[in-house]
Amino acid sequence: MSTGPSQPPIRFTGCKSLINRLVLSTLTGRPIRISQVRSTSISSTGFAPHEVSFLRLLDSITNGSSIDLDYTGTTLVYRPGLITGSAPGLGTAGGVLRHELEAGCTRGVSYFLLPLCLLAPFSKAPVNVIFTGAGCITSATPTGDISADAVRTAILPLFAQFGVERNIELRILKRSCPGPGGKGGAGEVQLIFGHQVRLPKTLHLMNPGRVKKIRGVAYATGVAAANNARMIESARGVLNELCKDTFIASDVSPAPLLPSQDRSNPGAKRKLGIGFGILLVAETSTGCLYSADVGSPPEGGEPPESVGRQCAFQLLETVAAGGCVSKVAAPTMLMLMAMGDGDVGRLQMGRNVVGSEEIIGLGRDLREFGCSAWGLRDAGGGSEDIVVSIVGRGVGNVGRKIA
Q1: Residue-wise burial string across 96-121, b where 16 or more C-beta atoms lie within 10 A, e elsewhere
Q2: Residue 315 dihedral angles phi and psi, to the nearest 5°
């Protein structure tokens, strides 16, 4: 979205909520200035490699954006342009944009997928991006990123609540887990988002319902398939007593191969991204989704049974938190409600989810970008949940309006 040269940037300090602020700046067209990013750090001053990679991704899917970093790497001035997606002639090849993640990346691919999914409905053209490179991790990571499977099964289906449901697909072309030290994975993921809208529909979701089924996937990369069976058995041992309709699929794939960089043997290959993990998604009678995602640690030493039980208990904690949306999906839902058509949307959320630092920070950032304040009230009926009311800003898709 183009902004006038006289519009002053919104000023922020520090790197907290960096991705949310960049996404909101791109959606609303407001320029931002972020300063003092890790300015007191001795070993890692300024923007981290994965944050710079996300800035490159923003530059690739927009036209007319201005990204200025100072020579110390601690101050950023970002003036957003029009969201063009994978439009021909703007760095794409055959309508597909390839974004390579460097080998030292410690964040999962969901770190890039979640904000891209928020921008894609407001794009001028469909979004078709392939994430590749030695730093692409598709599993859950120790840094708190969810897996690509969680984005596919627990985040993308929520867009249907806003009238965005056609031609949306996430393909995991090559699985990977965090490499040594949690860095790198050499996986490959393709996001196809072909449903662009003028304005998202107003959301009214205030009935969590009851859990009717649990689905999941256990994945193993470069290790024995028996690890999947052990994770599935331990997870079902916890969940079967609570929900009989439980099905967990198994996916086994070889570890990605990379050049070993051995001068004595230039043609040698080395394995990267070895590990296993499990994802569980609970669906209620009203269509609400709760997810839990656990992967094996990069240093190893944790048996599959422990990973399966941990994921099952994590899913139960997520369901027990209440509300119609889990903590990992709440920012996506709230942002789409704030970008709605000017009507009042309502979403029932768990009290602890609303009171989390991430959600409170998101509400403050939305106010900074001119969105309305939230209305909060008790859900009533013996529930401890909170109903969040948001008036949509009505920004809409400028690219669709021009077309």
Answers
A1: ebebebebebbbbbbbbbbbbbbbbb
A2: -65, -40
| Contact present, 22 and 54 (Cβ < 8 Å) | yes
Buried b (16+ CB within 10 A) or exposed e, 23-59: bbbbbbbbbbbbeebbeeeeeeebbbbbbbbbbebbe
Nearest in space to 386 (alpha carbons), one of 376, 396, 400: 376
**What are the pLDDT digits (tens) for 160-204?**
999 999 999 999 999 999 988 888 889 999 999 999 988 899 999
What token pair was written down for 58? 């923003």
The SS3 assignment for 232 reads helix
- Count other C-beta atoms under 10 Å from residue 341's C-beta: 16
Report pLDDT digits (tens) over 219-241: 999 999 999 999 999 999 999 99
Mean pLDDT of the chain: 91
Separation between Cα atoms, residue 96 and residue 88, nearest integer Å = 9
Q: What mean pLDDT is predicted for residues 130-136?
A: 94
Sign of CA dihedral 306, 326, 248, 105: negative
